Amino acid sequence: MRGTKLVNRLAARFTVLVVIALSATPSYAEDGYDLWLRFAPLDGVAAAKLKSQTPVVAPISEGDRSSTLDVAVEELERGLTSLRGEGDPPPAQNPVQIILDCGTEPGTGQSGFSLTPQLEAERPTFRIAAQDHIGCLYGSYALLRELAAGRGLGEISLIDAPAMPLRLLNHWDNPDGHVERGYAGRSIFDWWNLPGRLDQRMIDYARANASIGINGAVVNNVNARAFMLEPRYIAKLKRLADAWRPYGIRIYVSARFSAPRDIGGLDTADPLDPAVRQWWQAKTDEIYASIPDFGGFLVKANSEGQPGPQDYGRSHADGANMMAEAVGDRGTVIWRAFVYSAEDDTDRAKQAYDEFKPLDGQFADNVIVQVKNGPIDFQPREPFHPMFGAMPKTRLMLELQITKEYLGFASHLAFLGPMWEEVLTADTGGEKSVADVIVPVGMAGVANTGSDRNWSGSVFDQANWYAFGRLAWNPSMSSDAIAREWTAQTFTRKPAALEPIVRMMLESREAVVQYMTPLGLAHLMGTGHHYGPAPWVCDLARPEWNPCYYHRADRDGIGFDRTPSGSNAISQYDPAIAAQWSDPAAIDPKLLLWFHRVDWDHRMASGRTLWHELVAEYDRGVAKVDGFAATWSALESEIDPERFRAISERLAIQQTEARWWRDASIAYWQSVNGLPLPEGTAKPPFSVEYYRKLEFPEAPGQ
Ligand code: BDP
């Protein structure tokens, strides 16, 4: 009896499950994991065309095969099937053969490719030609990208090649799984289970990178642990390197300069000490024995408490060259220029240039100096770093921050394409843009990846990873073109939805600047975590840790005087640029308070006083965010529910927090300048004391 009841109950349950399974619309969960590689089925004319052409990848002869070409074939087949959207279509009479021709020179050089349709021929073909196999893989991804954007095979004819040799992600991931300045969960690197187990995510990561041309990854934080150079880690690194090799991705490691002492048993890390040199030589040889294409070392030295050559009275060049000798022509030493000293009272914006400029010409050929986009630290807006115009005899690489430490973490929508376009196109003087300076070398982006299903904390933050890769491939691409490509692949190709999404992406970074740090202000964020406004912080031990150090507001005025009457940081720029920026009337108002200290009633080009303009900027920023939320909510029918809701919630947070930035900042400035608000302007709802007391114990980076 009891047995029968149980069987009945199970049967009933089974029926319910079957009914649920049958009645659910067969929908594909859009949790963002597939990034821009969704290859959503085409529709309309594009779909009909692809179906009638039924492109098939022509077989590759056994002798020509390689693991990279196997990936290319697999990607093409997977992508084409997905774009077609249905199971196997009836074979076309004369299907288009996609030919991977990877040993000819299409005139592009290394890693480049050409895409050539010959659809009218008797045997229609689409040829992906390259000089090397990685070029063929890049060409395959390019073909899929073009198709995914809605273009037909016949319209896709292009020749392309990466502009710069090094296109690297820098992960600030610690071996314990915490990601410094990470807002997307834990580290994606599973050091505990490596080398025995390789997570599928490591392959999906390589696919995502290769699809946008990223060709290297520094897998650990610049604030490095020496033990990552020990044999057990070399085995783990080898497993990753082997997995990524087919995708053209080389592995790099952040090396702690004091490693010879920390793990090598020596009592010094002096770069001129023969035992230290020998230690690095042996360590480097050991790594290359396991990983023959190891990319090299990234080093943060004598910066924010990290050890370095200056601990022994040696220069950055002494340190870098010593390691470069160990690496030889097998790889590269990337030496970071992000330095400022706890003992130096010079304007922090000047210190890197002051330390490095005298070393121009002293670095070995296989040393690269990696310079952040601006002279302080990844602020929402900074002028370009003066080192880009001042080190003609040094190989300089640009460091960008993809993760949004200072732009609202993953909570705020801020598409960084326009910010990076701004620095890449900046004129350094002497007829070279920043892009011209770095093109022979490369670009690095501090990654925003994490264990979250959507990789980046929010779907829109995936666009920043994407934009970094595309700009490293081609620094003259416009943010507009990048946003379009990304949106078509990530959300929708329908112009009625794509256009408003692209528009809000393009406005988003400026909105953040306006409600956080308008008119050239910088570094006003909360201590430690860097979240939210804290312009009132003036009492931290080091002067340059304090927002007050940066804004210098008092009763009379606001801004950092970096002209000759102040710190004269402006003199680090080309004289023509310095001359223009020295004049508060001639400088772009977006940089005014970075270089100038002006009275609150300073007259702006708009005719408003500085004070009124500042308030107007905050209001413009807040209004833009309200606009984004309205734009997004009108797109509900165009976006899958899961991603629609996730983004709606983020935008609601951004609306609240943009107001918070505005109100707290205005309340603080008023407490300093005692000025009334311009007429018709909303009063901050609370006093500055209220904002000052807010605490965020859960904020990442605390
Ligand atoms: C700052 C970050 C800090 C990094 C440092 C760096 O706050 O976590 O270690 O840059 O780039 O932006 O080394």
List descriptors.
binds beta-D-glucopyranuronic acid, TIM Barrel, globular, alpha/beta, single chain, 3 domains, 702 residues, Alpha-d-glucuronidase, C-terminal Domain, 5-stranded mixed sheet, Chitobiase, domain 2, 8-stranded parallel β-barrel
Account of the 3D structure:
This protein is of the alpha/beta class. It folds into 3 domains: 44-160, Chitobiase, domain 2 (2-Layer Sandwich); 166-478, Glycosidases (TIM Barrel), CATH 3.20.20; 515-560 and 597-692, Alpha-glucuronidase, C-terminal domain (Alpha-d-glucuronidase, C-terminal Domain, Alpha-Beta Complex), CATH 3.90.1330. It is built from 21 helices and 15 strands. It has helices at 2-23, 44-53, 67-84, 133-148, 200-211, 231-244, 259-262, 274-290, 316-327, 348-356, 417-425, 434-438, 459-473, 479-490, 495-516, 547-551, 575-582, 592-595, 610-633, 641-673, 688-693, and strands spanning 56-57, 97-101, 113-118, 125-130, 158-160, 166-170, 216-218, 250-254, 296-299, 332-336, 367-372, 396-401, 442-446, 557-558, 598-599. It has an 8-stranded parallel β-barrel. It has a 5-stranded mixed beta sheet with strand order 1-2-4-3-5. Helix 9 links the parallel strand 9 (296-299) and strand 10 (332-336). The radius of gyration is 27 Å and the shape is globular. Mean pLDDT is 94; it is low at 14-27. The protein binds beta-D-glucopyranuronic acid.
